[in-house]
Write a structure and sequence with these properties.
heterotrimer, A alpha/beta (369), B mainly alpha (319), C mainly alpha (303), A: Rossmann fold, 2 domains, 13 helices, disordered N terminus, B: 319 residues, mainly alpha, two-stranded antiparallel sheet, 71% helix
């Protein structure tokens, strides 16, 4: 044991040296940080795949400013502590820029690390308003913020004449933040809050919450968490005879939602991120994604692909791999990708919301006119 | 040398200064001291996490290893420390160093509240009580406004010492190294104290311990509180390092991970626990290359260690 | 709380409670014979659901997506996953039988992680739909609607549990099981094939968990690699409430936990976000006053 303990120390030191040498290589290195394991692994793999596709295409055309781009992925498992090690791994490997981030809770403590290192960081999925407050100027939110979603949600509620809402979240940073923001916005727009409920991720039985919602007299339910729970809640609400409207937050756009919810999902509204099915120009991407990875492109695939292109665009305009220049270039972005326009406000959030209200019809998401 | 150790007559012989422990210990310490000079930020970050687990595992070892109480909710005390310190610095502008005694006191109180009525229970029942307590603490942190709800606290102040502010991961590495050494020292001294011997008897045979005049509940409570205090101090430093804490860091899984560290290396003995803690932190990092297979590979490695070394990698040879 | 609401929550609690009871039963049986908190039990439940889904989608081609398909899936899954339980016991737990108890606990944790990690690697974290045409038809008691599926579900789990209880209390093997749980060494001296009894216990416990998994999959309509984690925790809690090691205790504990959760969600003044605080708080208070659970024997412990 004595020996192996020493060997461990040596190995750690050697690993350190090795990593420093790698960082000196000439190529431009882009880091992806996403949940590759854990409950949201499916989303993380989508993000990695889509960014890879974008970068591979750029490399096939000769790279950026004459340099090839290499990619390195770090798994944050949507866990704050793992996110911090994953983040510092990327920083130590000398990445030029970082893209990714799905869970707000895991992204939050990493902002400081990337900020101190001055690395441009484009956040693809995470959109808690706390990210905006903790941003040191180097991070950009390519997804619309919770505030924007709340506004879109309240518009949709009003358009449908819903007056009394029950809000249901999963008790995590993202879903409780969204529920809170929307409830506040809905209240100030004259709506009434019938109930605020929390479920536990990974549970299957929501009957107690369903019963409570029914007896609260709510005419609609807003589910702010992810698709797995959303499908179960929808199914159980309809089975219990709930007739009112059901609206879902942006974490629910997954083919799995429609498969699991089945006929109960008909007529459900969703505030969707820009997915391949809603985007007219994304048919090629969708087909190619399926061909390359053998699975359907998930909710954030299109946006992830865009972010891959966006970072290349910024590096091209910065005319170097200098991180300060790339951050400035990102600030001045005027980018149009599959998912739409990416232009940032002075807080580095999207200028225009990319949320699209859609409705489930015949087992498909269809845009709401 | 080894045979000598094996034939040691009594089970409560204090750990003697043996070269087989001291030498690698010194070598490890020397390596630890110079590590940030050679390693990059990532390696230092992982090493800092390893040191955090060393502190937590040593603390839990007092409860599980010395006193023999199965605790499945140890992360709760880690949370109490982190949140106490985080709230006091971020919301009330306290100096970081002043929050440590407050956090220690809070952990003590929490330890008494949950420990005093339940420490009489059999260990499997105690396991579920501690598990439940861990969940209760996490859910309270998630639901209250003062703890920042599910998103947690942000903007926790970084500590200053003699006009020097701890900023980089290297600084926190050394801070955790100091804390780990301090904890090891405390463990070493209580192991040899009256209290340590009382724990040993309680663990070995509760009834006999009662028979020779040891107050079982007091002894258990002392162990429980000491473990709680250590975790809370680790929590304070953790909060300062992360600057943002959220309930996700204090889940049941976290408690299991700490327990894993205690058992993997060799329960009840400081070098074994340190080794186990380091492994718990390093294993997932070393296996990063496995991608989606990482949890599986980690699990297989763990299972193999347990099957081939049922008493841990560096077990206690005295008992 | 109105009467209707009360009845509805009672029904909710009973349904979820009968799942908990099924899973807790296996937990409790395994604990009874080898004093192990089998952390892998929740993952066995998850594996059961996956095997059930695979079988269901195959036989569905011939027998349709109705009851027959579900029953086929149930039986095959119980058999296959029961064997998986035996394999886990043989390769992970048997070599550890004389190891310190905490090491066995960690081994169980490792086994749980292996099962979970395998499922993650194979499914890529996908959630699978388990769509049946069992329908929502049923009877109405005032505003409370109870579907036939729900009734069958509760009846099936009660039948499984009653069968188990009869097995443990009436048959020779059951007697052997009880003997091993009281004193393994003495049982061996009396000529009981202890290894075989333990293997049998694992088979039955795992088969029950698999049955629970298939029923949950079919009833809720979704299967996922992570579904066993929470269920394992709940089963552990239920087993302890009932008195760990006791078969009827596990059933009672499961039902009680289900009811606690249902009513904990609809407490006046606090929302469902406090449910688990209520549940665990009640549990702790309960154990302080009744330290061996509902039906547990008080055992002198020797670690």
């Amino acid at each position: 044991m004595v020996v192996s303990f020493k060997r461990l120390a040596c190995a750690t030191a050697l690993a350190g040296l090795a990593l420093t040498t790698i960082a000196a290589a000439a190529d431009i290195k882009i880091g992806i940080v996403a949940p590759m394991t854990g409950q949201l692994a499916s989303e993380g793999q989508d993000m990695e795949n889509a960014v890879k596709m974008a970068i591979d295409a750029v490399n096939a055309k000769g790279g950026v400013n004459g340099d090839k781009i290499t990619i390195t992925t770090a798994d944050d498992a949507c866990d704050p502590q793992q996110a911090v090690t994953a983040g510092s791994k990327l920083v130590s490997e000398g990445v030029t820029a970082i893209v990714g981030g799905y869970c707000s809770g895991a992204v939050l403590p990493t902002l400081k690390i990337y900020g101190d290192a001055g690395i441009p960081f484009v956040i693809i999925g995470a959109n808690s308003t706390k990210l905006v407050a903790a941003n040191q100027g180097n991070a950009f939110l390519a997804n619309s913020t919770g505030d924007m979603q709340a506004t879109t949600a309240v518009e949709l509620f009003k358009k449908n004449g819903y007056k009394k809402f029950a809000f249901v979240d999963e008790g995590d940073a993202y879903s409780s933040d969204l529920a809170k923001l929307t409830a506040e916005a809905f209240k100030s727009a004259g709506g009434e809050i019938a109930a605020k409920e929390t479920t536990t991720a990974g549970e299957q039985d929501y009957s107690a919450v369903v019963t409570k919602i029914k007896s609260s007299g709510a005419d609609a339910v807003f589910w702010t968490a992810y698709h797995a729970g959303g499908a179960l809640l929808t199914k159980q609400l309809r089975q219990a005879g709930f007739q009112g409207g059901i609206v879902l937050g942006d974490g629910n756009n997954s083919p799995e939602y429609l498969e699991i919810a089945g006929s109960a999902g008909e007529g459900v509204y969703l505030l969707s991120p820009p997915t391949v099915d809603l985007l007219s120009g994304a048919a090629d991407f969708k087909a190619k994604y399926k061909e390359t990875y053998g699975r359907d492109a998930g909710a954030y695939a299109a946006l992830s692909h865009d972010v891959g292109d966006l970072i290349v665009d910024a590096i091209t305009r910065a005319k170097s791999a200098d991180q300060k220049a790339i951050i400035e270039a990102l600030k001045a972005s005027d980018f149009k990708g599959l998912a739409g326009e990416i232009k940032f406000t002075n807080k580095n959030t999207l200028q225009t919301s990319n949320f699209r209200p859609v409705i489930a019809k015949g087992g498909k998401w269809v845009a709401v006119e | 040398m080894i045979d000598e150790v094996r034939t040691m007559p009594t089970a409560v012989q204090p750990q003697l200064m043996r070269w087989s422990v001291v030498l690698p210990g010194l070598a490890a310490l020397a390596a630890a001291l110079v590590l940030p000079q050679f390693a990059n930020g990532y390696v230092t970050e992982v090493a800092t996490t390893a040191l955090l687990y060393v502190v937590l595992c040593l603390g839990l070892n007092i409860v599980v290893g010395y006193a023999g109480l199965l605790d499945l909710g140890y992360a709760a005390f880690f949370a109490v420390g982190a949140y106490t310190s985080g709230i006091l610095t971020a919301e009330f502008g306290f100096n970081f160093w002043l929050t440590i005694p407050v956090a220690m006191a809070a952990a003590c109180v929490a330890g008494i509240i949950i420990g005093a009525p339940t420490l009489r229970l059999r260990s499997d029942y105690l396991a579920i009580v501690t598990l439940g307590f861990g969940e209760i603490v996490r859910i309270i942190a998630r639901n209250l406004d003062i703890t920042g709800g599910a998103s947690g606290l942000i903007g926790i102040e970084r500590p200053e010492i003699f006009g020097f502010r701890l900023m980089q991961v290297q600084h926190f590495y050394y801070a955790f190294l100091v804390l780990a050494l301090l904890t090891a020292f405390v463990c070493l001294s209580v192991e040899r104290s009256r209290m340590g011997r009382a724990w040993f008897y309680v663990r070995y045979d509760e009834d006999a311990a009662a028979g020779i005049g040891i107050n079982r509940v007091t002894a258990k409570l002392q162990a429980y509180m000491m473990g709680a205090v250590i975790a809370s101090v680790a929590g304070c430093l953790y909060a300062a390092k992360m600057t943002a804490i959220s309930p996700e860091s204090f889940t049941f899984n976290q408690s299991l991970l700490i327990l894993l560290g205690v058992v993997l290396g060799g329960i009840g003995r400081i070098p074994g626990v340190v080794l186990g803690a380091v492994l718990v932190a390093l294993l997932p990092e070393v296996l990063r290359g496995a991608g989606t297979y990482r949890p599986l590979v980690t699990a297989v490695a763990l299972l193999a260690i347990m099957l081939f070394r049922p008493n841990g990698l560096w077990p206690d040879k005295r008992v | 709380m109105t009467l209707d609401l009360l009845i509805q929550q009672l029904v909710n609690g009973l349904i979820v409670g009968s799942f908990y009871a099924l899973i807790a039963l296996g937990y409790s049986m395994v604990f009874g014979v080898i004093k192990l908190l089998n952390f892998a039990h929740g993952d066995i439940y998850m594996n059961g659901a996956f095997v059930g889904l695979i079988v269901f989608s195959f036989v569905g081609i011939w027998v349709g997506n109705g009851w027959l398909g579900v029953v086929c899936a149930l039986l095959v899954s119980m058999l296959a996953v029961g064997l998986l339980g035996v394999i886990i016991e043989r390769f992970a737990y048997r070599p550890m039988r004389n190891a310190p108890r905490l090491s066995i606990l960690i081994t169980a944790l490792g086994a749980s992680m292996v099962l979970n990690g395998t499922a993650l690697a194979l499914t890529g974290g996908r959630h699978y739909a388990f769509n049946t045409d069992l329908g929502f038809a049923g009877v109405d008691i005032s505003t409370v609607h109870i579907t036939y599926t729900q009734m069958v579900l509760v009846a099936a789990s009660i039948a499984l549990m009653a069968g188990m209880q009869a097995f443990v209390s009436r048959t020779m093997y059951g007697k052997a099981m009880r003997a091993v749980s009281i004193d393994m060494g003495a049982s061996r001296l009396m000529g009981i094939d202890v290894d075989r009894v333990i293997a049998l216990t694992f088979f039955m416990g795992s088969a029950l968990a698999a049955g629970g998994g298939v029923m949950a999959g079919a009833y809720y309509g979704s299967v996922h690699f992570f579904m066993g984690f929470i269920m394992g925790l709940k089963a552990f809690t239920a087993a302890v409430i009932g008195g760990i090691g006791s078969v009827p205790g596990a059933m009672l504990g499961g039902l009680l936990l289900g009811l606690l959760e249902a009513f904990g969600s609809s407490l006046p003044f606090v929302g469902s976000e406090w449910r688990d605080v209520f549940v665990f708080g009640t549990l702790i208070l309960f154990l302080v006053f009744k330290p061996t659970g509902l039906l547990g024997r008080s055992v002198v412990e020797r670690v």
